[in-house]
Write a structure and sequence with these properties.
Elements (H helix, E strand, L loop, with lengths): L17 H4 L2 H16 L5 H13 L1
Length: 58
């Protein structure tokens, strides 16, 4: 069996520029990031204990 592959030159690979960093996707992420951070929660020790207790039963 013959292995085939395509060689790519690392010189030809583009690096993100400042213009690309301001893409619409990046702007959307920056706008949503504070709202996503609000959704992050630390479970209480009591909640973790309940989950572990339930897991041991199974």
């Amino acid at each position: 069996m013959t292995k085939t592959f395509t060689q790519t030159s690392l010189k030809n690979l583009s690096k993100p520029t400042l213009e690309q960093a301001d893409s619409p996707d990046q702007k959307l992420y920056e706008a949503l990031k504070p709202k996503l951070d609000e959704l992050y929660r630390e479970p209480s020790a009591e909640t973790i204990a309940k989950i572990l207790k339930y897991a041991k039963k199974r």
